[in-house]
Amino acid sequence: MTIYYLPARETDTPTISLTASRWSVLRARTHRAWWRLRLTASEVWGVVRRGGKRPSLDEHILFTAVAPAPRRRALGPARIIDLDAARRRRAPAALSARA
Question: Strand, coil or helix: what is 86?
Fold first, then answer.
């Protein structure tokens, strides 16, 4: 019989909790504030440039004439699936497989 012993806990060394340093927190907050300021400034600049009017549909990027054309369907008649003919074609193969 094999007996395994677990090592005893070391109670004299306290565990160190991982916390972010003040500089890393300050840097992250500054980075987020910078990007918020940039986005707000670009929004305000867009409104000022338009004169407070809403953008028209002609100026919108999704409605430009450069949009790709939709894919065309393959030319020719649609395929019709004849299940009875398929069963008749498979019948000789099924009979030869049994033999």
Answer: helix
